[in-house]
From TrEMBL:
Official protein name in the record: E3 ubiquitin-protein ligase
Comp. bias (Polar residues): 614-623
SUPFAM superfamilies, per database record: Winged helix' DNA-binding domain
GO CC terms: cytoplasm; ubiquitin ligase complex
Pfam families noted in UniProt: PRT6_C, WHD_UBR1
Domain E3 ubiquitin-protein ligase UBR1-like winged-helix: 388-483
Species of the source: Perca flavescens (American yellow perch)
């Protein structure tokens, strides 16, 4: 029906006729407005033609306002004013909705006025004034004396009504301004309504007040003793209409015979301003917070344009019409400072003196505002754009601000617009944000001259910040600190007489009194803020006089402030000018010296202008030279002092240097033997250069292994600040660490293997699948503590945290979590620091052994040793009585010699650790085992050493992945703390075998070796394609020393034996991994052209495996080299941390080519640069092994194409690709339908950033069970996709959610920014959003560096959580 224009018109008429009844029914009802017929008003009242017709024919303004009056009539008191004590907030909120209809009617002002429209509009305006009359003077307050107020009075209702009327008042004024006749009628009606208001009457007759030979006849009134109201809508509306009269020129048609009592017009606004001043002076403390809140909103951006600003406007109107002396006397009277400045009262009460000082400050500030605030269209020749520009300038003078902060600081019009966009480019420059924070606008330098330190829209804190900021800026630029008053625009004719306030007798008297008190330096009678305001006023006066003198003849200028200021006071007092000179010497006013100098300089300029001499010449003769000479003297004095201080410092430093040299000379032995002291918590090394004679041998393993540096680490405990050297036999020092499950490297997201703690029926955790479905990562912030200090700290944290509200959200005490004492990183264990083992490597012996210990011989010896150990174990189990005899019998002859022959290549005693280190090894290993397998703590579990090796391997793989992703070199990129943490983890994993059963370690080695030597291990050994070879390498290298264990004596391999063990293991594992890469690769091109030796070897190997001849060897070589490079990089990191041998310089630079990097890796790992040469060198050994490897059923299926396997190099995981425009995500979310729900309820579509799955969060339809608990879709998804860790984008809220477990999570800014470089949480501002690649990259790093748990803990530590959010329901 409303689609047809005629029907819509008829419906609008009927709707208006029954409007009152419809609204009353809606108020009584409990239904939402959205389903009420009253909601149709927006479709009717916003049509301009219909709105005009409804005003003319149905007087809809009168109907709407009358409806409001009828509904609010119950809240009227005996004086016909509103009193909202005990009001119904729900009903009141429904009544306020009616004001929206009044805004709809007034939304577009008419361009053509008819007589009918004029008549009905004025009629409606009168009814609206009736509503305002009920608000004028409502909710009066009276200052409380004696005791504090018992019950806080109701005030929110009055201000919510004021906020609703704010735009309506502006729109009424806008309508009135469009027609002079309407404007005059409205002004007369408004004035008449104001005269009819009988609130706040005077209780005493008028009295004469005398000051400086001037008499003011006015009724006495004290704000501090009598009732006063902050609500004066009619007075403020009258002020607004008067300015419009001035702006349109219609003020000339105003009937001046109508005797406006200017004093009466200014009375109520002045009382209101004085009330705010007295509250600021803390005179109303006993009236409670309700009054403080009212004054705050009175001056706040939400209300000030129709409250505080209009009061200032009314005072300016009064000042322009009244005698300036009388106006100032009225101001002094209402501020209750009349007697104080008249010299007829004094006090010794400190509180009273403080109040007088604060009131004087506020009174001077009000005068500054009345005289200086001219940026109102109609008061001066400025536009709305100029007004907005000035607001922005003063906001940016506080500090550079974000766009949203600027918008919040500016008043909105009825269309919720601030006008910022039209002016911001004129006054500010935009600085784009980095990876955090937001874009900021900074003020252009040329706009700084417009800064007014006493800008009337500054709050007290803003004023202080702006003043401090500008003084700091001026100091940095080498200027003085004087914050001069800006040159204001000229007043319009109607307001031009306001400037007379600056040169009247009373202002001179007030300024003289203020400066006199400062000159006498009686600290209780003046404040620096008072002097600052007085100087600003003087500056304003001098600028005004200078401006007038420059634009007119001296004879025409009546403004004579400078002349009066130089006159001697009537009461034998000094002139203002002389007092200014005197206060320069007051020590406590040193901060104002620059301002005083500027004011005195302005006096001289004005004097020159009056004498008609050239200001420039005169200044250079009379003022500039003295000033310059004074400044030069001051600068010379400062320079002299600076030079003296510099010489003094140099002398002291020379003395200290001499003392240091003497101390070193007398303590030579100490300095030769002791290492340098280190920084807090970081390893410090003192290396003797002679120990690096084999520096050129940058080889980590094999007979040419380089030497481990003999480093001594002296560390400082971050808790007790005591230093200690890291020694195996010393008390343990530990690194904070966090162990967590991770899917960062997974190749099969969402498929997490089921962990069996007993190890039966599954190859994990002994064999890591090549998909790296889930790993155990151990990270450390690198901060060092004594083990005993950590234990005490951890106990203290447990005791303290148990008493903290919602502490379980931050740290899980049951799982041993705590925050690092220094950096507050989340930790759940400690890693003991174990120094490098000092090994003496005999290179000649290594060469001799190498001739005998070839790979076939090594395999033979290891096999014999394993069989022998197995036989011994079985014999021990079968016959404990004759174990030694049976053992010898079982190993007779050649078996006996092979069983022992492993020992003949070099053994030594194993390392001994202190009990403290041994205890910490167990603590760390137990945590890794518990977290990695999600099982109960059990230090005797056979998987404990396996999980230690696994976390070592996975952590190295994660670090290599990050370095490769960021394009950083393998060595030299990690921070010292990160490197220290990695070394500690590798050394901890290597030492783990010493704390475990040697039989268990031997069995693990036997099983792992079975992958490389099929048929030797257990029956269900995984095939070549079912293991990750780096995990296997770490396990084999760290477990092989257990083979050297003898029953009667503890042994471990010597350095040479270890070097060969590592070499042969690495060669075997590398060849197996190369074959793994080849088997998983297909579709190589045919051979083309002549090929290199490496290409021929690669082609030959491929033909051997796949039985396909004539393939491109170069393609095969390139694919294999790329496939095994991550493995070799991880191996290099591992052996570097295990042996301490320095890597080649090529691995510490990104400038080296990929070929050069590969050659450096091979050199460091004792591999041939052509890795295919391994198969040639060990042909006899590897050929039968290759046949066994390829003959595995799993390998056969892959080669036949029946199943897929992991391709190498593995895919490097990143967060999913997000659209550049956020609206694309919103569109995607709008089409999202929950798979488990058919209703149309609003859902919360949430995007997993790991895999891209769209989930239905915070909805009962998608609840599922996880470990016996009900959890939401996101929590359940995180358990399978991220091993409990999740990163989700809530699309409709535009925020990231980080999750770490069922009970912990936090929000994080989304990586989408608007054009102003700001995020938009909950899409509150609605600006177009675009993806910020830098921020998304930071999120990706947060995930890959395993910092999500840490970020959650830090954010929860900062935020004081009162009501815990149920993250598990997300």
């Amino acid at each position: 029906m409303l689609m047809e224009t005629e029907f819509k018109r008829l419906f609008a008429i009927e709707f208006t006729k029954h409007y009152k009844q419809l609204q009353k029914d809606f108020i009584i009802d409990d239904h939402d407005r959205s389903i009420s017929i009253t909601a149709l008003s927006v479709q009717i009242f916003t049509v301009p033609t219909l709105a005009r017709q409804l005003i003319e024919e149905g007087n809809v303004i009168k109907v709407i306002v009358g409806t409001v009056m009828d509904l609010l009539r119950e809240h009227l008191d005996d004086n016909n004013r509103f009193f909202f004590l005990g009001y119904n907030s729900d009903k009141f909120a429904r009544i306020q909705v009616i004001f929206h209809d009044l805004r709809y009617i007034l939304i577009s002002k008419p361009s053509i006025w008819t007589e009918e429209l004029r008549r009905e509009f004025i009629e409606g305006f009168k009814v609206f004034l009736g509503l305002l009359k009920c608000m004028q003077g409502m909710e009066e307050v009276k200052r409380q004396f004696g005791q504090h107020i018992a019950v806080e009075p109701e005030w929110e209702a009055g201000f919510s009504l004021q906020i609703q009327l704010r735009h309506i008042l502006a729109m009424f004024q806008d309508w009135c301004s469009s027609d002079d006749e309407i404007l005059l009628l409205a002004f007369e009606e408004c004035h008449k309504a104001l005269m009819q208001c009988n609130n706040q009457p005077f209780h005493r007759e008028a009295t004469d007040y005398y000051m400086c030979k001037h008499i003011l006849h006015v009724r006495p009134y004290k704000v501090s003793q009598e009732p006063v109201s902050i609500h004066l809508p009619i007075s403020r509306l009258l002020a607004g209409l008067y300015v419009l009269l001035c702006r349109t020129g219609a003020v000339e048609r105003l009937d001046d015979s109508e005797s406006f009592d200017r004093t009466q017009l200014a009375e109520h606004p002045l009382r209101c301003v004085v009330l705010a001043a007295q509250v600021s002076a803390e005179m109303w403390r006993r009236n409670g917070l309700s009054l403080v809140s009212q004054v705050y909103y009175y001056q706040d951006v939400k209300c000030r344009d129709e409250m505080y600003d209009k009061d200032i406007l009314m005072l300016q109107i009064a000042a322009s019409k009244m005698d300036p002396n009388h106006f100032l006397m009225l101001v002094l009277l209402r501020f209750e400072l009349f007697d104080y400045f008249n010299g007829s009262c004094s006090s010794k009460d400190q509180d009273e003196l403080t109040q007088w000082n604060r009131l004087t400050e506020e009174m001077l500030y009000l005068l500054i505002v009345i005289i200086g605030e001219r940026y109102v269209p109609g008061v001066s020749q400025v536009t709305k754009e100029d007004v907005t520009m000035r607001e922005v300038i003063h906001l940016l003078c506080i500090e550079p601000m974000a766009h949203s902060s600027l918008v919040k600081g500016l008043p909105e019009n009825e269309s919720h617009e601030t006008g910022l966009e039209t002016v911001i480019t004129k006054v500010a420059t935009f600085k784009k944000p980095g990876v955090s924070g937001h874009g900021l606008y900074g003020l252009k330098k040329e706009r700084l001259v417009e800064f007014n330190p006493f800008f009337y829209h500054y709050s007290r804190s803003q004023h202080s910040k702006a003043e401090e900021s500008q003084k700091k800026r001026r100091t940095q630029e080498g200027n003085d600190k004087a914050l001069r008053p800006p040159v204001p625009p000229a007043f319009c004719l109607a307001f031009s007489s306001i400037v007379r306030l600056l040169c009247c007798d009373i202002i001179i008297h007030v300024l003289r009194r203020v400066l006199q008190r400062a000159a006498e330096d009686r600290s209780t009678h003046w404040t620096e803020a008072m002097i600052q305001r007085a100087l600003h006023l003087i500056g304003q006066a001098l600028i005004e006089e200078k401006t007038q003198l420059e634009h007119s003849n001296v004879e025409e200028v009546t403004f004579d402030f400078s002349l009066k200021a130089r006159r001697i006071g009537s009461e034998h007092g000094k002139s203002v000018f002389l007092l200014l000179s005197k206060i320069k010497a007051v020590p406590s006013l040193e901060a104002q010296n620059d301002m005083v100098k500027w004011v005195l300089q302005m006096f001289e300029i004005v004097k020159c202008l009056r004498e008609k001499s050239s200001p420039t010449a005169s200044m250079s003769m009379d003022t500039t030279k003295p000033e310059e000479s004074a400044q030069d003297k001051e600068k010379a004095e400062r320079k002299r002092k600076a030079e003296a201080a510099k010489l003094h410092r140099q002398k002291i430093m020379a003395q200290m240097s001499e003392m240091q040299k003497n101390f070193i000379e007398s303590n030579k032995m100490l300095y030769e033997n002791m290492p340098e002291s280190g920084s807090q918590g970081e390893p410090v090394t003192s290396t003797d250069s002679c120990l690096m004679e084999h520096r050129e041998l940058c080889v980590a393993i094999g007979p040419h292994r380089g030497s481990s540096p003999a480093e001594r680490e002296v560390l400082t405990c971050i808790l007790c600040q005591e230093e200690q050297e890291v020694v195996a036999q010393a008390p343990a020092m530990v690194l904070t660490a966090c162990v967590q499950r991770s899917t960062v490297l997974t190749q099969c997201r969402g498929k997490i293997p089921t962990n069996r703690a007993d190890g039966t029926g599954t190859s994990y955790p002994l064999f890591m699948p090549p998909e790296l479905a889930v790993g155990t990562h151990t990270g450390s912030c690198g901060h060092v503590m004594h083990a005993t200090c950590w234990q005490k700290y951890f106990e203290a944290v447990q005791n303290m945290t148990r008493n903290r509200l919602h502490a379980e959200l931050i740290i899980d005490l049951e799982n041993g979590e705590y925050l690092c004492p220094l950096c507050k990183s989340l930790c759940n264990t400690v890693v003991p620091l174990i120094p490098f083992e000092t090994l003496t490597f005999n290179y000649e012996n290594a060469e001799i052994i190498g001739q005998h210990l070839t790979l076939p011989r090594w395999i033979q010896i290891i096999s014999a040793r394993i069989k022998g150990l197995k036989s011994v174990t079985q014999d021990n189990d079968c016959n404990t009585e004759g174990s030694s005899v049976d053992g010898d019998t079982g190993l007779c002859g050649e078996g006996q010699s092979d069983f022992r022959s492993i020992l003949s290549y070099g053994v030594q005693e194993p390392r001994k650790f202190s009990d403290s280190i041994a205890e910490m090894l167990v603590v760390c290993a137990t945590t890794v085992h518990r977290v990695g397998l999600q099982t109960a703590p059990n230090e005797l579990c056979p998987h404990v050493p396996v999980m230690a090796w696994n976390t070592c391997a996975f952590t190295i793989q994660a670090i290599e992945n990050i370095l490769q992703e960021e394009g950083k070199p393998l060595f030299g990129s990690l921070q010292n703390r990160q490197l220290a943490g990695l070394k500690a983890i590798v050394q901890f994993s290597a030492a783990q075998r010493l704390k475990s059963s040697q039989a268990v370690i031997q069995r693990h080695f036997h099983d792992m070796l079975g992958v490389l030597l099929p048929g030797m291990g257990r029956k269900n050994s995984p095939s070549l394609l079912e293991v990750d070879f780096f995990h296997l390498l770490v396990g084999l290298v760290l477990s092989i020393p257990a083979l050297y264990q003898e029953e009667a004596v503890d042994l471990q391999p010597s350095a040479v034996s270890s070097a060969y063990n590592h070499l042969h293991i690495l060669h075997l594992v590398t060849m197996a991994h190369m074959l793994q890469v080849l088997i998983s690769s297909k579709d190589f091109p045919a051979v083309a052209g002549e090929e290199t030796e490496e290409a021929r070897a690669a082609s030959e190997l491929y033909t051997t495996v796949w039985l396909i001849p004539d393939v491109s060897g170069s393609s095969v070589a390139e694919r294999v080299n790329r496939g095994i490079e991550p493995f070799l990089r991880c191996a290099a990191l591992f052996f570097s941390c295990l042996t301490g041998v320095h890597p080649p310089e090529e691995l510490s630079s990104t400038a080296v080519t990929s070929q050069g990097q590969m050659e450096a890796l091979c050199s460091y790992l004792a591999l041939p640069s052509n890795v295919f040469q391994l198969f040639q060198d060990h042909r006899d050994t590897v050929t039968p092994l290759m046949q066994r490897w390829s003959g595995s059923p799993a390998v056969t299926k892959v080669m036949k194409g029946n199943i897929q396997t992991v391709r190498y190099p593995r895919r490097r995981n990143r967060l999913i690709d997000l659209p550049e425009d956020y609206s694309a995500l919103l569109n995607q979310a709008s089409h999202f339908q929950c798979p488990k729900s058919t209703d149309d309820d609003r859902k919360h579509p949430t995007l997993c950033l790991f895999c891209g799955a769209m989930l239905c969060s915070q909805s009962s339809c998608c609840l599922s069970q996880l470990d016996g608990d009900d959890v939401g879709a996101c929590t359940a998804h995180a358990a399978t996709c991220g091993a409990g860790v999740g990163m989700f984008l809530r699309i409709r809220e535009c925020e990231i959610v980080l999750m770490a477990s069922k009970t912990r999570g936090s929000t994080y800014p989304a990586p989408y920014l608007d054009d102003y470089g700001e995020t938009d949480p909950h899409l509150g501002r609605g600006n177009p959003l675009h993806l910020c690649p830098e921020r998304y990259k930071k999120l990706n790093q947060l995930w890959q560096q395993h910092c999500i748990l840490e970020e959650i803990a830090r954010s929860l530590e900062v935020v004081n959580v009162m009501f815990a959010f149920e993250w598990q329901m997300l």
